[in-house]
Specification:
The termini are far apart. The protein contains one helix and two strands; from the N terminus they run αββ. A two-stranded antiparallel sheet has the order 1-2. It is α+β, with helices and mostly antiparallel strands. The chain is 33% helix and 21% strand. It has one domain (4-36).
Amino acid sequence: TTRTVDNFIVRFRKYFEDDPRHPRYFKSLRAVGYLFEAD
């Protein structure tokens, strides 16, 4: 489906982020896509 990537990002955030509602690593860029930003 068209939401497959979105669903994987949600799973990644739940697993890797301290606070999935305020992501530090898996960021959403409006009208672009997603960005993985490692510290």
